[in-house]
Design goal:
Number of helices: 3
Helix content: 55-70%
Largest sheet: none
Order of helices and strands: HHH
Number of strands: 0
Strand content: under 5%
């Protein structure tokens, strides 16, 4: 089952991964969420994802 809500812990993990330069594709695997959902949350938070 895919998560639909973002807990504070999950958002903090997402921010930490973004700081480390982890790509949205890898974030999606680690968070068990669709890449589109990860990209949408990053955009909502105003975070530019790493493309490397």
């Amino acid at each position: 089952m895919t998560e639909t809500t973002w807990s504070l812990d999950t958002v903090q993990t997402l921010r930490a991964m973004a700081r480390e330069g982890i790509t949205p594709e890898v974030m999606s695997l680690k968070l068990k969420r669709p890449v589109e959902a990860v990209r949408a949350k990053l955009a909502e938070l105003g975070i530019t994802p790493s493309t490397a």
